[in-house]
Amino acid sequence: MSNTLTTKNGKPRATVAASDPKIPNLTPEQLEEFGDELDAIRQRILADLGEEDAAYIRKIVKRQQQFEIAGRALFYLPPAWPLAVAALSVSKILENMEIGHNVMHGQYDWMGDPKLNSRIYDWDTMAPGENWKYGHNYIHHTYTNILGKDRDIGYGILRMDEDQKWRPYYLGNPLYAFLLMIFFEEGVALHDLEVDRIKTGERTWEETKKVGKPIIRKVRKQVLKDYVLFPALTGPFFLSTLAGNAVANIVRNIWSFNIIFCGHFPAGVATFTEEECENETRGHWYYRQLLGSANITGGKLFHIMSGNLSHQIEHHLFPDIPARRYPEAAVEVRALCEKYGIEYNTGGLTKQLWTVARKILRLSLPTRTRNTDPAPAAPADADLVAA
Amino acid sequence: MGTITTKLLGSKAVAALTSPHGVDRYLEMFNPMWAATEVRARVVSIHRENPDAVGSAPVATLTLQPTSTWRGHRAGQYVQVGVELPGSARRMTRCFSISSAASLPGERITLTIRANDEGQVSKFLVNAQPGQMLHLSQAEGEFTLHESAATPTNNHLVMISGGSGITPVMAQIRTLLRDGYDGRANRKVTFIHFARSEQDQIFAEELAAVAEGDNHIDVHLHYGDATFSEFELRRLVPDFKNTDTWACGPGGLIELIRAAYGEENPRLRVEFFKPPAFSTGAAGGDVSFTRSGESAENTGATLLEQAEALGLKPEFGCRMGICFSCVKTKTDGTVRNVLTGEESSLPDEEVRICVTSPVGDCSIDL
């Protein structure tokens, strides 16, 4: 059976995730209504933004700074090394997830505070904010899970979807994923270089230089801070501080990698083709964001430490709304999903991670073609040409 | 804080250590008056300037103690003041002329502010309490005296102001009297001011004292319907077109003065306040892209589309209001967010041009 996505004028255009019967077929009218309802949620939350949201992000920044001060200071006490690493890891996770990622999304631009402004803030990681905002805020959030267009972390190095053609290189899928997890910071920084596209000639040397220079500058800055200045400040404990900073960065890497990979790669998350998404309506865009993202359940602290990216679905529907509002939006989004019969992909961290791991392993081998697959490509394409 | 401490805290090494937030985020945790790079100020006192005024907005002078990062100001400059209004958490930033004489780094300054009906920030400031912290910029603006009061000269200076436009001119007169010998300006100064009424005249006592004193300054105050006339100016200063002149006031007054001096007269320096923008509720009016110098009739389309129609190539991304690639500053006019329908007339507001359309006249820094 195949499910059909439709254009503005109601013509069936292409099929989506035909192998997954759980994805419902919404009529153009339904899609429009669905979009309007999500717009209404968005509007309501935007109108309600105010002092509480400002106080919240300021409090998180303050906490993060306290953890950072504690972590940096504890390196002067060698027996407290594990504590120092722990405090610094928490600080780095909070900064990257709940502060950096969200502030750089413009979620707090409305406050008019230059310290929390997406155009000014540059997070504590090797990826320069300028590059990341282009690749993430624009490309990934606009073209979410459209193969060949979404250049979110993963697609460049790993095989994360059956529709990516298998090559022997992908036998190393699990190994690459593991290395990417450990060196996530470096991976994200280099990601915007789009090395694969330099190789294929899609990207010129000039363009690469423009992206590369800020990376070199930012990497230098981060290395100077974590591996030269702070270790030097602890004098005789230079090496133990350096090691501690490295471990904290890796702890943060592992955590971010896991949260982020649970956002778009668990079982049941749909991917799309470029043709399916041409001239899409706002309702269709919302629909694709919903089908292309997955949540992780957990307690309040877990949500904060994940920068509320545990609500990846709500984040993708409303990327510019302060993340602390996602849990409240989730209640309404879930109700909408039930109304339209769309599956709301959520589960515990272990469950979601397990399905991601299985996917990484499974896709390292060539995909066996299934006989049950219908062959809808031809009529869909014909329709496209006609339109 | 001492200069060495400030220098050290403002160094690149400390910036690297305290990234991404910067050293000021740590300093302010301990004391709101500690800063290494940014400028803040504490309200020391507030003095109501026109307690007897009837039917006109209250005016108050705020004495501010800036942080040690304040680099001082030249008479006639202004400063951007940022406040988080209670209940909204949104920081609003507005420009105010400094009314006190030129200051050295770290010195106190005063702002004299009229609480306009429309002005949320000015209303808040006029009613602020001592102890209130404000965000400041460094002093800005070129509406300044170019000569030192300490050096006597034969140059004749003319100052013309209207309403609240008196503040930067007052700063200049105060600087001349403070820095000259024996409380004299040491050059001939003709000061002409237009106010709504005698009760509405701010700095009235000080102006009376200046007028009476033997200080080389002539004061001419006009009230009510009196407007600027070239004839009268010529009577006071026959060669005014060749005399260094500073004029500050509402747009209408400045237009009259400009006409009298002739276009592009280098002797005339002006500063004026913009009238508040009002929404016309529809398309129409003109859209100006000030940086590129392009303008056209407002078609009602989004600012991004209108800019592109004029052949401009502003940066953009998603074109649906989610990625913030296309944010630009709207300097003037009213705009509507096409997603929410919300209209806004705030000056110097950052907008996503892909989901913002102008309502009536509008200027964008693009």
TrEMBL record, chain A:
Residues 80-346 form the Fatty acid desaturase domain. GO terms for molecular function: oxidoreductase activity, acting on paired donors, with oxidation of a pair of donors resulting in the reduction of molecular oxygen to two molecules of water. InterPro entries: FA_desaturase_dom (IPR005804), Fatty_acid_desaturase (IPR012171). Residues 1-26, 368-387 are annotated as: Disordered. It comes from the Bacteria. GO terms for biological process: lipid metabolic process. Pfam families: FA_desaturase (PF00487). Residues 373-387 have a biased composition (Low complexity). GO terms for cellular component: membrane. CDD domains: Delta6-FADS-like (cd03506). PANTHER family: ACYL-COA DELTA-9-DESATURASE, DESB (PTHR19353:SF84), FATTY ACID DESATURASE 2 (PTHR19353). This is Acyl-CoA desaturase. It comes from Nocardioides marmorisolisilvae.
UniProtKB/TrEMBL annotation, chain B:
It holds the Pfam family NAD_binding_1. Residues 36-146 form the FAD-binding FR-type domain. SUPFAM superfamilies: 2Fe-2S ferredoxin-like, Ferredoxin reductase-like, C-terminal NADP-linked domain, Riboflavin synthase domain-like. One of its GO terms (molecular function) is metal ion binding. It comes from Nocardioides marmorisolisilvae. Keywords: 2Fe-2S, FAD, Flavoprotein, Iron, Iron-sulfur, Metal-binding, Oxidoreductase. It comes from the Bacteria. InterPro entries: 2Fe-2S_ferredoxin-like_sf (IPR036010), 2Fe-2S_ferredoxin-type (IPR001041), Beta-grasp_dom_sf (IPR012675), Cbr1-like_FAD-bd_dom (IPR008333), FAD-bd_FR_type (IPR017927), FNR_nucleotide-bd (IPR039261), MRET (IPR050415), OxRdtase_FAD/NAD-bd (IPR001433). Gene3D superfamilies: 3.10.20.30, Nucleotide-binding domain of ferredoxin-NADP reductase (FNR) module (3.40.50.80), Translation factors (2.40.30.10). This is Ferredoxin reductase. Its cofactor is FAD.
